[in-house]
Amino acid sequence: MKEDIDMRTSKSFAKCEKSASTSRRGSSIAWRIMLAATVLASTPAIALAQWSGTDDAFLPSPVRTVSTVPANGDVNPYGVAFVPGNFDTGSGALKHGDILVSNFNNSANLQGTGTTIVRVPKNGSPTLFFQGNSGLGLSTALGTLQYGFVVVGNAPTTDGSSATAMPGSLLVINSQGKLIQTIANAWIQYPWDMALVDQGDRAIAFVTNALNGTVSRLDFKVSSTGLKMLSAKTIASGYVHRGDPAALFVAPTGLVYDAARDRLYVASTGDNAVYAINHAASTQSDNGQGFIIYQDDVHLHGALAMAEAPNGHLLVSNNDTINSDPNQPSEIVEFTKEGDFVKELSVDPSQGGSFGLAVKSTNDKAIFAAVDDNAATLIVWTLNLP
């Protein structure tokens, strides 16, 4: 469904580009959105295409793609995060509006062995932002803090199989792309995804754990020197979690935190459902699975990563290992917080390509970015809002 283009990326990206074959819908008024064909690479100008929202949906039609493969050949892009306008870039390589993508596999396509984060600027070619030592596996747990820190989940294996998965950690990286801190404790058990809530001098990291099917809340004090953990708590548990030869793990994954409701939404892949946890930032109890807000066997095929659209809807990717349907491959599904289906969009004609996604919005624009694991690419849409 996506268009092919002749991407003129930097030589290191072009020579290493390859496919990764393993892994993995308004407001009350109708939207009319001008879809700007944004290509985050040094390509010629592309004519605008128009999409008219007549169903209060957010998801548009696919636009363009850019490679996420760095010089070392890492593939299987997982996490997606924007560098926000309040991020302290300092003298570092990051700029406001950049998109960061974490790679989970190495050049041999072994899961849980990728070591790189790629920077995709608003204009120009992708560049390498961070490269760690071997023994990492940079997951979908990727976020930023305004103090100038990038936080990413390290979910490693030794041979690409779930049998050798280790608990892992959260890595704190500064704006220069240097690792300054590793956070490892009993509440981090293979960090599969994360919702990072930036409160300035404080931060909350909600983390889904693939090894035990739980959601942890980690509370931090943040300063220019890094993160200091103040408390940790298991706030949800009981989700399906198991190893899987294709997906590596079937476990709770995507998280979205609704601050206005103090509610955490949890995408549980194995349950093929999205749950909600009330009082997520303050509860001192384990709330079990919480309560289901969305379960749809027609459109859900292994609910995975999640993001919130500017219209308040939730977007969830699907890994196609649960309730598989070859006629609905690599879908991102849009639904309301009341559990109503809105729209779906495929990022790849084959199954297993949909994973990490993120949305950034301003007063007049929304930028939506999602990875295609199969092609090791990032797809970016720029939408002009009314």
Key words describing this protein structure:
386 residues; mainly beta; Neuraminidase; six-stranded antiparallel beta sheet; four-stranded antiparallel beta sheet; 28 strands; globular; disordered N terminus
Structure summary:
The protein is an all-beta fold. The protein has one helix spanning 11-16; strands at 32-36, 49-52, 64-67, 75-82, 99-105, 116-120, 127-131, 138-145, 149-154, 169-174, 179-183, 191-199, 202-209, 214-223, 226-236, 242-244, 248-250, 252-258, 263-268, 273-278, 291-294, 303-308, 314-318, 331-335, 341-346, 354-361, 365-372, 377-384. It has a single domain, classed as 6 Propeller (Neuraminidase), CATH 2.120.10.30.
Question: How many discrete structural domains?
Answer: 1
Give me the strand/helix succession: HEEEEEEEEEEEEEEEEEEEEEEEEEEEE
- Helix amount, in percent? under 10%
CATH architectural group: 6 Propeller
Largest sheet: 6 strands, antiparallel
Tell me how many strands there are: 28
